[in-house]
Amino acid sequence: MSYLNTLITDLRHSKPAAAGFVSEGLFWGTFAGLVPDIKAAIDASDGQFGLAMFFASLGAVAAMWLAPRVDAKLGNRAMQGAALAMALAFLLPGLASSVAFFTLAMVLASASSGSLDVIMNTRLSGIEADTNRSLMNLNHALFSFAYAGAALFTGLFREAGFQPFFVFVIMSVLVFMLIPVMFHKPVGFGEGEAQEPLKVRTALIFFGGAIILVAFMSEQATEAWSALHLERGLGGSAAQGALGPAILGLTMGVGRLSGQFIAAHVRETVVLQIAAVIAASGLYIAAGASNLTTAYIGFGILGIGVSVMAPMAYSAVGKRVSNQQRALVITRISVIGYMGFFVGPPLMGGLSEAFGLATSFYTISAILLIVSAVLAPGLRKQ
User: Fold this and answer.
1) 203: closest CA among 354, 19, 36, 379?
2) Residue 267 class from Cβ within 10 Å (0-12 exposed, 13-18 middle, 19+ buried)?
3) Which of 280, 271, 278 is nearest to 316 (CA)?
4) Which stretch is the leader sequence (predicted)?
5) Model confidence over 97-136: pLDDT tens digits?
6) Pairwise CA distance, residues 64 & 120, whole Å
7) Of 285, 287, 41, 35, nearest to 155 (Cα)?
8) For residues 20 and 178, what is the distance between their CA atoms, to the nearest angstrom?
9) What global pTM score does this model have?
10) CA-to-CA distance for 6 and 29, rounded, in angstroms?
11) Closest-CA residue to 124 (of 247, 260, 296, 230)
């Protein structure tokens, strides 16, 4: 009961940012569940789809780089503005009938999503510092649960024959209802805080950003490609294919709620090392699966492991910077992290066309081990 009360208190403290995390989860879960239909509608090969997502990531990174300015300009309504733009932009992929239109649509959707991502993580990091509470894992868990629910319901909508645009409209309406909650006054600088040169934090930004990059790349690999692996490789139906991203989202939510408790007792870098090995094992199992059940188990194990990697990295970095530095540092590690969406799509698409989708998953599994062996120990020293 004490743990439940703590969660409720933490949620109350982070309510505006929490609405942003839920909004992001709804759209990306929907998109993941619709990938097979959208890919068929635009008649794209694996390589073309991966390249389109690569260009979409360019839009996200450009927007994230400018996000601190948007945050400063819109102030209390920054999260609301970014969420509104995202809700409108995500209608466009549902209308796509060509690779070119889909690419443009995803550039706009990813740009608005990237802006919201930086702003809500910056605000949440400030709330953590102001309240002296660990909130990252809880809020990232909300993203995961929203993602899982959206992916699951999207699969049901697909089975019922609904078109992608209709499903995106439903999610947009839900986000419109959450936007009023996102009004938030940013945490101010502490009195007497001196501006520390950003170059002093270069190593911190590199290690924190690289961990987030691998985490996002691993998540994206499953979000965008698991449904294809289950349907095309293992003969699953639309609903069975949507269970891949849904299971990932659900297990990531459970893992992050557990991480909320673990963060209070275990150092973040230790958790990162263990989590990376678990995630790598899960993806390896999913890649080699010969039936749907084994693949589901693998994706579930991946979800448990990868779930805490990004929030733990954000939290570890946030604790090591001042309020004055926070927006800029969070932006930098987020931009590096989003490079996972640069690297992931062409890597997955290229390897899939050349060697098969399973080989793509094996490659991501090997990359995850770098976090445990190199990146987490490096972050610990900062």
Assistant:
1) 379
2) middle
3) 271
4) none
5) 999 999 999 999 999 999 999 899 888 988 887 888 888 8
6) 11
7) 35
8) 8
9) 0.79
10) 27
11) 260
What's the per-residue H, E or C state across the chain?
A: CHHHHHHHHHHHHCHHHHHHHHHHHHHHHHHHHHHHHHHHHCCCCHHHHHHHHHHHHHHHHHHHHHHHHHHHHHHHHHHHHHHHHHHHHCCCHHHCCCHHHHHHHHHHHHHHHHHHHHHHHHHHHHHHHHHCCCCHHHHHHHHHHHHHHHHHHHHHHHHCCCCHHHHHHHHHHHHHHHHHHHCCCCCCCCCCCCCCCHHHHHHHHHHHHHHHHHHHHHHHHHHHHHHHHHHHHCCCCHHHHHHHHHHHHHHHHHHHHHHHHHCCCCCHHHHHHHHHHHHHHHHHHHHCCCCHHHHHHHHHHHHHHHCCHHHHHHHHHHCCCCHHHHHHHHHHHHHHHHHHHHHHHHHHHHHHHHHCHHHHHHHHHHHHHHHHHHHHHHHHCC
Residue with tokens 């490609």: 225
C-beta separation of 128 from 318 below 8 A: yes
Residue type, 45: S
CATH topology for the 14-183+200-380 domain: Growth Hormone; Chain: A; (1.20.1250)
Is residue 44 classed exposed, middle or buried when 0-12, 13-18 and 19+ CB atoms within 10 A define those classes? buried
Low-confidence ranges of the chain (pLDDT < 70): 1, 3, 187-200, 224, 345
Is the Cα torsion angle 49, 82, 24, 212 positive or negative in sign?
positive
- Residue range 269-280, pLDDT digits in tens: 899 999 999 999
d(C-alpha 328, C-alpha 135), whole Å = 20
Could you give the CA distance from residue 207 to residue 215 in angstroms, rounded to a whole number?
Answer: 12
Q: Helix 136-159 crosses helix 164-178 at what angle (to 10 degrees)?
A: 150
